[in-house]
Structures are given as structure tokens and as C-alpha cells.
Amino acid sequence: MLTQALNLYKTAYSGLARSSWNLSLVLLVNRSGTMVLPFMTIYCTQHLHFTIAEAGIVMSMFGFGSLAGAFLGGKLTDRYGFYDVQFGALLSGGALFLVLGFQQSLVGVCINSFILSLCNDAFRPANSTAVAHYSTTETRTRSYSLNRLAVNLGWAVGGAVGGFIASVNYSLLFWVDGFTNIFSALLLVKLMPRSGAIKSAASKVMHTVKAASAYKDVPYLLFLLFTTLFAICFFQFFTIQPVFFKTHWHYSEMFIGFLMSMNGLLIILIEMVLVHKLDGRHHPLVYIPFGVLLTGAGFALTNILPGVAFTGVLIIVFLTIGEILSMPFMNAFWISRAGEGNTGQYAGLYSMAWSTAQILAPAMGSFLVDFNGYSFLWWALGIISIASAAGFASLYAYRFKPQRGNVIKAADVNPT
To answer: What Gene3D superfamilies has UniProt attached to this entry (predicted)?
Structure first.
């Protein structure tokens, strides 16, 4: 049994390009140093003596910067290539983290936070484009899952180390975050020299024609709408739900931290294997609705089951499996729509959908709780998840369902 399990993991991780592993390593180092953002609200209120409302404004600047960065990153990637945008985003982001640690006024912190987030999130569409470039049709979805694994593992390390550093000196968070970004940029240059990336990219586009605009791809724009609805629900997991666990179910901070870590651990343990088993058997839009429905069910369980420890664990299992069944295949879908000349556009729009949800989710969640309580919020998230899943399913049924039982692989869908 153990041998079979080990062989299953070996198969799931085999066949991925060396460049895909190198990209994930760069991302792992970068995310392991992500320490400022999780503690930014506490830093603003406790050390800069901002009000809660002012701290909320600062966090909104991160959200708006993320939205602008996703758009700009997509544009720059198509114009200058994914390599230069990744390097520039990492290097500038690192420098801006160092500068942010010296800001004391609300205006200074807000301006710095916006520009920092803009630079940081310009990295995302460039990195997504790089993953697509270095992977094959057969390995593309797993390559994105490898990136997600690096992100989740990095967040777990960064959160744990960041908590320790914050207990010693909050100012150190900015130095560690900044130098980790800069080190990631240097690691990118060391592992993946620019000349090789540019030469490889040039050989791929030598005989291609100008691709159509992502902004005119109606099926893709509908996909982004349904993705945004899902993301608004999913972000409640990191924003409103921990507060509910603490104030209403009276979970300890340690147990809440365990639940958050459990999400990342489950992703690390099962996502690559599950994606390997499912990828290529059906169209990505077949899996996504199931993942979205499981996420909605996870939130609805909060109203159905008692607030004991087992319920918290079960909710995390539902949310995590829903995440695993949806997000990797969302990546598979958007890259299947892109051509050689507009991958940055598609990646940028996809990142913008998540950035928009990152801005809207805390405001919507707080409003619904103030309007009619937590129970109303959990039912609302369930209903929105059903609407999102129905949208994905309808998009598949009317635009992408194969005729006469033909199966379309995840990365074989051509733009229409």
C-alpha cells in the first residue's frame, strides 16, 4: 500500500520541466518571505497608532494596487516578455518593502502600499505566462498546481516565521520581506538566465500571427464574471470566517491557526495527485462547478452543524477540496483561451478578477453580517456559489460541450 502511494506521488510529479520546478522554487522563496501583509493591520493600529478605519484604508490601497498591477503586468508581459516583468516586479517590490518600513504618516503609508502592491502583483500575470511557456499541453495544469503548492507552502512558512519576528520587532518584517523579494529576483537570474528565456520565447512566436484580443473574448469574460463571484465567496475563508470562529464558536487562536494550516497541508498532500488523475479526462469546466459547489457547501455547513471542533475541521475539508477542484482547472481554462501574442492579456484579466474579489469580499462580508448576522452571510455565500457554479456549467453546456461524446483535454480548447 505504501509503495503504491509513493508511486502515485512519483507519477504525479514526474514529467514536469526543470524550468517549471525553478519557477516554483523562486515563488516558494518569495512567498516564504511574505510577512508584512498578514500583520499590516496590527502594525498600523498598534505601532503607527492609526484608527481601525485608517488601517482599512491602507489595506484597500493594497487591493487597488493589486488590481492595477494585474492589469499593468499583463500589458507589460505581452510587450516586453514575462522574464523582464518578473525580475522587475520582484526587485522593485523588495525595495518598496524596505521603504514602507520607514513611512509614518497615513498618506505616506497609503501611497507606498499602493505602488508596492502594483509592483508585486505585476509579477502574477508574468509568472502565469512563464508557467504556460515552459510547460506542455500534458503538464500545464500540473505545472500550475506545482506553483500553487509553492505558494501555500511559502505562506505557511512565512506566517509562522513572521509571527515570531513580529513578537520581537515589527520593523524586521519589512527588512525580511524586502530582502526575500530581492533574493528571489537574483535567484531567478541564477536559475533561469534571461538569454535562454528570450531565445526560447522568440522561437515559439516566429511563425505565429497576431492573436485576438482577450477583451473581446465573450466566453472568457463570462468565465471571469463567474470566477469573481466564486472568489468573493472564497476570500471569506481568510477574512470573516476566522473572526466568526473566534467570537461565536469560541475557538482558540491556536485551533484557528491549525485550521488555516490544515488548508495548506491538504493542498500540499493531495492536489498534485488529484489533478494528475483528473486532468485530460474532461473539459476543465466540468470540474470547476463541483469545486465551487463544495466551497458553497462548506460555508453553508456553518449554519447546519454545531460549533464543535469536528465541524471546523469538516468545513475546512469541504473548502479545501472545493479549492482543489476549481482553481487548477480555472488556470487550465484561461491558458487554453490564450494565444502566443496575448497570454499576458489573459493572465492579467484573470489576476484582475481575483484582485477585484479581494477588494469586494471584506466589504461585502462585513456588510451582510451587519445587515442580518453571520447566519445570513453563510446562506448568502451558499447561494452565490450555486449561481457561480450554474454559470460555469451553462458556459460549458452551451459553448464547450463536445459533440458525440468526444473528450476535450484541459489545454486543448481553442479560442472562439
So the answer is: MFS general substrate transporter like domains (1.20.1250.20)
